[in-house]
Design a protein that fits this description.
Elements (H helix, E strand, L loop, with lengths): L9 H10 L9 H14 L3 E7 L3 E8 L5 E3 L4 H5 L6 E3 L12 H4 L6 E8 L5 E9 L7 H23 L4 H24 L3 E5 L5 E4 L1 H7 L3 H4 L4 H4 L2 H15 L6 E8 L5 E12 L5 E10 L1 H8 L1 H4 L15 H10 L3 H21 L3 E5 L5 E4 L1 H7 L3 H4 L4 H4 L3 H17 L8 E7 L5 E13 L2 E10 L1 H15 L9 H18 L3 E9 L1 H8 L1 H18 L5 E6 L2 E6 L6 H15 L3 E3 L2 E3 L2 E9 L7 H17 L5 E3 L1
Parallel strand pairs: 22-23
Antiparallel strand pairs: 1-2, 1-6, 2-3, 4-5, 5-6, 7-8, 7-11, 9-10, 10-11, 12-13, 12-16, 14-15, 15-16, 17-19, 17-22, 18-19, 20-21
Amino acid sequence: MTQPPIPPDETERLHLLHALGLLDTEAEPAFDLITRLVSQILQVPIALVSLVDENRQWFKSRVGLDATETPREFAFCAHSIMNRGPMLVQDATQDERFADNPLVTGQPNIRFYAGMPIRSAGGLALGTLCAIDSKPRVLTKDEVSILVALADLINKEVQMREAVLLARSQMNYSQKKIQAIEARFRTVFERAGVGIALVAPDGGWISVNDALCQIVGYSKAELFQLTFQDITYPDDLDSDLNLLQQLVADKIDRYQLEKRYICKNGSTVWVQLVVTKYVGQTGELDYFVSVIKDIQAKKEAEASLVALQLSLEERVLARTHDLQEANAKLSSAIAQQQQSDQALRKREAELSMVIENANDAYVCTDQAGVIIEWNHQAEQTFGWSASEAIGCALDELIIPPEMREAHRAGMKHYHIAGEHKVLNQRLELPALRRDGSVLPTEVRIRALHLDGQVIFSAFLHDITERKQAELKREHEARHDLLTGLPNRRTLFELIPQAISRANRLRVPLAIVFLDLDGFKAVNDTYGHEAGDAVLCAIAQRLRESVRDTDTVVRLAGDEFTLILELLSGGVQDACVLAEKLLLRIQEPILLGQNTAHVSASIGITLYLLGTEKTPDQLVNTADAAMYEAKRAGKSRVCVQ
């Protein structure tokens, strides 16, 4: 058995451990809650909060173990405190450090161990949060992350006790409430689809979230060395500062504008900025709250709207707001109960401010699916006021009827198994509005465990415009903008389908290549607008002259291609239709006070079953037949 090493800061570590007054004390909910969560979430029989003393390890909190302490020389945790991150032992009998350890060879028969150091604010390792099983185990990446996150909660508890040892007994109740608010506050910032920043009165960054860093390309450390003036595009700075001065002078209570930031790589990005201010207890300005939405895509779409008719597709990034500054302020404010209450009210005000200024609908439900929060954007999106929505079942309010059973089954499965496929990911789902209409939304849902209860926090973004833009772009990519006919790309998608049908039904099809005769003279005489009118008229005549089973395509310029299917009479049927088209095309076309006359040269090729001709070959053959018709005198039909 390998003796555990002694940390280089052992004397300082032991001094702090004894000064905290945690050793040999009664059980406390702040620690017991974490060990129960470790046992339940990781599904292990034993979970411990272990403090490593000079000659022993003592359990501040324990689940599944009667003993309150063990000798340090046998303690897995004495090894774990040497690590910066988690220590994982999948099978202790296969680890030379522990194979002959009495805790492995005897009760409690340790096989699996996972421990995460508990550290002071100065980085001293005081003990561990550990999970133990009598069976070999391998933790998933998510399970390791959960252990690290729960250990971080204990770190915060221990570090807080460093600062408030004398106030511990009177602060238990308020601390628990603050932690619950912080958890919800953190969730809002993690799931908010915009950049968020707290900005000092001089323009320096106090706190920023990851979404803002991704928008401008700077890390948090780099932003803290700059001001918002430094990264604002010079042409946009005066308008921003003017509105800021009006906000400081109480002439306005908030302002919103579109501006450009200069990114780290030198490019610019358009953002929509919403700024409010926070005034402290003394009435002096503490900081500004900025909500920053990336609208670069929208601006690019607006710039190219005339030519491309593109709409904005927004990408909303969800990241976390840094609570370290808030925790520091909280630690300095908890010398007495009154200051703690003030900090709590401040957090609630910040949370409400962010939720109400969010660009997405925010909905929060309890574990039964009853709505407990409903922000202003949710009112705008779904048509229900907050007073009407809160207290109603979510599935009866915004989930379409055909999806409600699946939603209820998913909720039931989550409460049984603790997992759900819609959590912690972006999903596109339909949602029901008050007027009965259904709109597409992008949804992000997270489950929060607070005080033994589960609440579900969701952000919903209306993506109706994005979906409409996608459909429009797809239509424009496959159709000719002038005539509305399918274009060349669509032609070469449709021919293979038509060939498959011909082979399946054992009926031939024909490809018809049509080029207008005399069209250039119309352009030269009456202008290109008249030429466009002629092309539209010819396109309409072709559509009217073919069957529903046939397809008319504008290939390019004054060239058209037809796919004629179900030709039971073969090439004879195709020729009959082609002659009909010649007569129809030669009819005069009125152009205001003028009249245009055009004709056409038509080439036909027939696809016969089993010939294995490619779409390119069929079109090229029909094209060659059309040129044969032109050489033969135009206004006629040739077959190859």
